[in-house]
Q: What sequence folds into this?
């Protein structure tokens, strides 16, 4: 198997050794869960409960609104304390359901019904309905409602399914541990995805720096109709457009989506969630989070949605010093947090802590998290690095000059905000910040 790749990209240090050998550990459920009704791309869910309502684990507390939305479920058993706006780790305020646990010993689930997976072989609509009901979204970070991806337009059939196990973001190892510890379940989830889409080709993509995962997957993949594709370790290899091109040589058109070229990409964690939803009717109420950087004991944790970051960090021994940055996600595309009281949401793949003058801080500094933001020297490094083939420096200039229409004309909306341009820029321009600002202005 050759190492497949795409044009552009960068090679930041992986720094995965902190947690890659740490088996997934279950974090005790929180005494208080703050569950935002917006944990997905699209419209927020409509609250279905009121204060003082008793709930169990898996009780639906928010109902999707419109085509692009997702259901929300309680992650603990207890009583709804209030429904009020709370700060969301994505950087905005969202209406949230605050649930107080009744007892850590009780931890009562809604009834679950075990289903024979093979009986769903010819029931595409049933697979999609179970995924929809479970509130599953993309767990790689984008949080796009999964049931929508499983129901493309009739005139754009999907024949190619790619399970994304690249995990190219530095520091993060949650997907890697899932591939080692839940290999069969992930492949079963992939098989269900192929059935829902009536796809004929299935691949699971893994970067070449994960030999143990490649070995485990290769031993089982064929049994479930999948082929392991080993791709080059490069950032952002896990971007769905880059992955589709690397594996199939199909290029998603500007402004297009994967189904425009007959492809569907799903994260390996999403595939596991699909398996659990179809097999047990289990809603998405927990996920694996890598807690790493400057904590005393970096770990991979299975965490209930709504758990405050603070509890994960304390479970990992606490900070090694006063934190300078707490980032949800990795250093390239992660979002800095105001404090550690924000809740884990469906898109929380990792929590990265950086303390002043620490190893993590120096690595983050290199990754443009302590930017100089000096004038562009026209070196062209950002152009070489851009995986979308854009002209980042030019687009940044237009946004700075508030010429947003020109920025759009040069492909601003095709930017995936991966940060490769900022990583490679010797002037440390805040290019991703500019692009986010430009997109915001165009949306008004």
A:
């Amino acid at each position: 198997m050759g190492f497949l790749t795409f044009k552009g990209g960068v090679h930041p240090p992986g720094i995965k050794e902190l947690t890659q050998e740490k088996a997934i550990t279950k974090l005790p459920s929180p005494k208080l869960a703050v569950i935002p009704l917006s944990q997905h791309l699209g419209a927020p869910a409509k609250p279905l409960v009121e204060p003082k309502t008793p709930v169990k684990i898996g009780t639906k507390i928010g109902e999707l609104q419109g085509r692009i939305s997702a259901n929300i479920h309680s992650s603990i058993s207890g009583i709804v304390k209030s429904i009020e706006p709370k700060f969301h780790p994505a950087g905005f305020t969202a209406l949230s359901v605050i649930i107080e646990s009744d007892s850590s010993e009780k931890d009562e689930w809604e009834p679950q019904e075990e289903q024979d997976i093979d009986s769903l072989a010819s029931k595409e609509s049933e697979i999609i309905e179970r995924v929809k009901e479970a509130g599953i979204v993309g767990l790689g970070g984008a949080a796009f409602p999964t049931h929508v991806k499983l129901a493309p337009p009739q005139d754009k059939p999907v024949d190619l399914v790619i399970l994304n196990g690249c995990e190219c973001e530095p520091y993060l190892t949650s997907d890697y541990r899932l591939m080692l510890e839940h290999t069969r379940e992930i492949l079963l989830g992939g098989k269900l995805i192929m059935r829902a889409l009536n796809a004929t080709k299935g691949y699971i993509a893994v970067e070449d720096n994960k030999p143990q995962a490649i070995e485990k997957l290769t031993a089982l993949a064929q049994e479930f109709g999948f082929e392991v594709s080993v791709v080059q370790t490069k950032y952002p290899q896990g971007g769905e457009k880059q992955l589709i091109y690397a594996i199939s040589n199909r290029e998603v058109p500007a402004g297009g989506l994967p189904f425009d070229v007959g492809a569907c990409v799903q994260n390996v964690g999403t595939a596991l969630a699909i398996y659990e939803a179809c097999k047990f009717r289990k809603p998405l109420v927990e996920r694996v989070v890598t807690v790493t950087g400057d904590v005393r004991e970096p770990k991979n944790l299975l965490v209930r949605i709504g758990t405050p970051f603070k509890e994960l960090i304390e479970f990992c021994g606490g900070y090694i010093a006063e934190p300078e940055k707490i980032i949800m996600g990795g250093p390239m595309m992660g979002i800095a947090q105001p404090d550690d009281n924000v809740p884990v949401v469906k898109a929380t793949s990792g929590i990265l802590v950086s303390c002043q003058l620490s190893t993590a801080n120096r690595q983050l500094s290199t990754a443009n998290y302590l930017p100089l933001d000096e004038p562009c020297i026209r070196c062209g490094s950002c152009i070489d690095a851009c995986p979308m083939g854009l002209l980042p420096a030019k687009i940044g200039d237009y946004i700075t000059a508030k010429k947003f229409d020109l920025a759009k004309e040069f492909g601003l909306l095709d930017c995936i905000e991966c940060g490769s341009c900022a990583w490679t820029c010797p002037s440390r321009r805040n290019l991703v910040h500019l692009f986010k600002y430009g997109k915001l202005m165009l949306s008004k």
Summary: The chain has 14 helices and 17 strands. The first strand starts at residue 25 and ends at 26. The two ends are 47 Å apart (CA to CA). Residues 273 and 350 are 17 Å apart (CA to CA).
